[in-house]
Amino acid sequence: MDLHKIALEIRRAFLSPDLQNLSLRNQALLAMAKNLQTAFPEIQKANEEDLLDARKSDLAAPLLKRLRFDEAKLHQVTQGLEDLARLPDPIGATTLARELSPGLKLYRVTCPIGVIGVIFESRPDALVQIASLCLKSGNTVLLKGGREAMRTNACLTKILQLSAEEVGLPGTFAQLLESREDVQAMLSEDTLIDLIIPRGSASFVQYIKDHSRIPVLGHADGICHVYLDRDADPDTALKVALDSKVQNVSVCNACETLLVHQDRAEELLPRLAEEYRKCGVTLRCTPDAARYIPDSTPATEDDWKTEYLDLILSVKVVSSLEEAIQHINTYGSHHTDCIVTENREAASIFLKQVDSAGVYVNVSTRFADGFVYGFGAEVGISTGKIHARGPMGLDGLTTYKYKLIGSGQTMQSVRDGEIQYTHRDLNEVCPL
Amino acid sequence: MDLHKIALEIRRAFLSPDLQNLSLRNQALLAMAKNLQTAFPEIQKANEEDLLDARKSDLAAPLLKRLRFDEAKLHQVTQGLEDLARLPDPIGATTLARELSPGLKLYRVTCPIGVIGVIFESRPDALVQIASLCLKSGNTVLLKGGREAMRTNACLTKILQLSAEEVGLPGTFAQLLESREDVQAMLSEDTLIDLIIPRGSASFVQYIKDHSRIPVLGHADGICHVYLDRDADPDTALKVALDSKVQNVSVCNACETLLVHQDRAEELLPRLAEEYRKCGVTLRCTPDAARYIPDSTPATEDDWKTEYLDLILSVKVVSSLEEAIQHINTYGSHHTDCIVTENREAASIFLKQVDSAGVYVNVSTRFADGFVYGFGAEVGISTGKIHARGPMGLDGLTTYKYKLIGSGQTMQSVRDGEIQYTHRDLNEVCPL
Q1: Which of A20, B63, B104, B298 is the least buried, fewest Cβ under 10 Å from its Cβ?
Q2: pLDDT reported for residue A254
Q3: Which candidate, A401, A389, A432, A381, places its Cα nearest to that of A138?
Q4: What is the pLDDT of residues B352-405, one digit of tens each?
Q5: What is the complex's ipTM, to 2 decimals?
Q6: pTM for the full model?
């Protein structure tokens, strides 16, 4: 596989004028939904072969489940494509219109980023989601999925490509990479590829960042906190603290550290510990907290920095809202953090001062998700602060350009005083 | 200088709640304007010393001019601060408000990025501009200016710090780095610093990118094009092509390559060549173009990739609009490119398909500038596509966070069907 040739091809696909046509993009999404249904037996066959190999190599049960592309997944995926086709165009929107001087107008217009490389895990349905989000936003995409899903991914990619071609768009808008060497080669194509989105472990994301000049968006870790404030409603505290930890422990938006205000520890911790115990959660506590949770293990400094992704929770008693915020800003991963409180001012301070992509009041951290936010889906969750933060949907896949429309204005005539700036904001969309 | 200690201090300054107070930030900007005026003799003295040393080491005349901080610069800088104080708050704006389900509301609210490191050239007035843009947007800033401006920069930084303290903001919001070693140390503080903005040569920016895990925004090169279309108005063509090249040759938004449609080469090139000759511009031409410009030098492949920053222009005849666009997308640096045409459709195609931060119709490329765009000023011009593109003013210095406000919602209750998503967009600002 000649990655450079593929990168050139996909860049050419990105520059194809047809890709700017919303109607063609939406038609392609609907064709994908139709063709995935028609070709389902073929997909199933490829998926069966992948599953067979995975079982042979003793893939863990949860991974096998993610690898499976069954009728339920097909339904979910085609539904997603149809929903996406109905969403408004994320590109071509005028976000600034300004008269610089009479007859000279500046417009800021949203546009696609270009060629995006996405590295994702074993779920083949993620491939369809990612590729379709990229297409809807006018981008082209290099896809690298899990090795164990190779046959399913190849089959899905072929169907997506043919669907694009069917409506007159370049089939090359999406290309599947096969090996780690391809990924390595992709990382060095910094003049042809505009953005890399790696999904996976924190160390993997860091590896990608360290080995490429291409901008990387991704999440490092999901160390999420729930803070039970002095003015927390006890029922809300229990519901939110429990759901954030146990509803699904293996995801990045699950809670890893519980902070409790000292005035509420005696009341809340024993009740919470009992609920956690029922769910099999091991608690790692500071001495303050352990007083109310007799059978807990002591927490160490390392616990505050650890994403367990497991039935483990670290627990700390704090003396104030400020201490809670400081703990989160020091040890958290800027993903999603929640305060449980009935106090409006405390909520406001927490939301303003916690330096995270998601800051929640009285709601489980598990809600940090592109589908939940109504973004259609997500290509990833960004814990960085540059470009996109939190769940990255269509908006995160766009950038903008400045269009300046004049009639022969020169900088010399500005210097000569013939042109004066008016800087008058206009209420209009870019006409070109 | 202990850079790690400084980075910790400046991070603490960023997390100070007072920095979120717009009134305090504006008061600080006005205090800066006042104090710079009062302390002008002191600034002048420092600047004189810098100038003396610079003359001793035979600094080139244009650099000496940039280094000088005289009354005119003082006036410009204080005027800039007063203008900035009048601009609306770039942070705290609600850019999305959505009901996820009854009683559960999502808001996307703009906020500062955090700690920003800016490396800039010899102009001491740039220091005030950059620091004040960062403060207005709620950010804190590590500043590294040119070595030859060290005394002036130290004096200016002290005044800015004292002005912040005067109104009750942390003086540590801005800190001056002294040496290259400090810059090196800054690049490794990726948990404390959120963004690096290097200004300088393309190779310098690349060096910074290669040596840091911190996201970097900056411009690589300014290879700007003017394309004279088949339907160009001849006077506009002359004015725009000339101004883009000669009004100031040493800046990134000056034109380096002129593209001319073959049907207009015979008419336009001789007239243009005559004007360029008067201004002392050397023309490097393809054979097609050289036919109409007898005394030109031949252009090589390298010319299309070169930012001359000098009285040199490469000239190419193209057979179509498409060829012009392809040339720009292949050899350009995605900075600013202009079409001269009276044909609306040609203009529209050019604006849509040229993959640059600035795409212009009938106006000199020299207009690509934050002040010209009405952004107050700029911290730099981004030729990248991620986060900010083109002149980076206050908007480019902000990011956003998602605030989710609920009343005990759990993901389990969604799974149990007790909560259904409504995804209804709301017309309101975030109340917290």
Answers
A1: B298
A2: 97
A3: A401
A4: 999 999 999 999 999 999 989 988 788 888 988 999 999 999 999 999 999 999
A5: 0.92
A6: 0.91
Residue A278 contacts B where some CB pair is shorter than 8 Å: no
The predicted pLDDT at position A61 comes to 84
Give me the pLDDT at residue A372, please.
93
pLDDT score recorded for residue A373 = 94
Q: What is the pLDDT of residue B218?
A: 79
* Residue B401 sits at the chain A interface (C-beta within 8 Å): yes
From chain A, the residues in CB contact with B235 under 8 A are 408
Intrachain domains B3-218+386-397 and B224-367 with the same fold: no
**CATH tag for B3-218+386-397 (out of 3.40.50.1820, 3.40.50.2000, 3.30.565.60, 3.40.605.10):** 3.40.605.10
* B21: contact with A, CB 8 A cutoff: no
Q: Which residue of A has its CA nearest to B322?
A: A17
Of B334, B371, B383, residue with least CA distance to B355:
B334
Q: What 3-state DSSP class applies to A237?
A: helix
Alpha helices in B339-385 (DSSP H): 344-353
Mean residue pLDDT of chain B comes to 94
Q: Which of residues 163-192 of A touch B (CB under 8 A)?
A: none
Q: Which pLDDT score is estimated for A31?
A: 98
**pLDDT value at residue A122:** 75
Residue the block writes with tokens 């998602």: B402
Q: What is the spatial distance between Cα B147 and Cα B178, in angstroms, rounded to a whole number?
A: 8
Chain A CA closest to residue B348: A432
Task: Using a CB–CB cutoff of 8 Å, tell me whether B106 touches chain A.
Answer: yes
Contact criterion met (CB < 8 Å) for B247 and A412? yes
Under an 8 A CB cutoff, do B385 and A195 touch?
yes
Q: Does B78 touch chain A (CB under 8 A)?
A: no
Quick one: what percent of chain B has pLDDT higher than 90?
85
Q: Which residues of chain B have pLDDT under 50?
A: none
**A356 lies within 8 A of chain B by CB:** yes
CA-based nearest residue in chain A for residue B237: A408
Instruction: Determine the distance in angstroms separating the CA of A283 from the nearest CA of chain B, rounded to an integer.
Output: 21
Concatenated DSSP letters of A252-312 = TTSEEEEEEEHHHHHHHHHHHHHHHHHTT-EEEE-HHHHTT-TTPEEP-GGGGG----SSE
Q: What are the per-10-residue average pLDDT scores of chain A (432 residues)?
A: 93 93 98 98 97 91 90 95 94 95 96 95 90 97 94 98 98 94 93 92 85 84 95 97 95 96 97 96 96 92 95 98 97 96 96 95 96 87 90 92 95 94 94 92
Topology of domain A224-367 in CATH is Aldehyde Dehydrogenase; Chain A, domain 2 (3.40.309)
Q: Is B348 part of the contact surface with chain A (CB cutoff 8 Å)?
A: yes
For the record, the structure tokens of B394 come out as: 């206050």
Taking contacts as CB-CB distances below 8 angstroms, the residues of chain A near B410 are 239-240, 242-243, 247, 364, 366
Determine, for residues B367 and A15 on separate chains, whether the beta-carbon distance falls below 8 Å: no
Give CA–CA dist A113/A395, Å, rounded.
Answer: 11
The answer to whether B229 and B341 have CB atoms below 8 angstroms apart is yes
Residue in this structure with the two tokens 């042109």, named with its chain if needed: A419
Closest partner CB to B385 (pick from A104, A351, A399): A399
Residue B84 tokens read as 């900035």
Domain boundaries, chain B: 3-218+386-397, 224-367
Q: From the list A233, A247, A408, which residue is nearest B412 (CB)? A: A247
Q: What are the helix and strand counts (H, E) for chain A?
A: 15, 17
Tell me if chain B has a CB within 8 Å of the CB of A106: yes
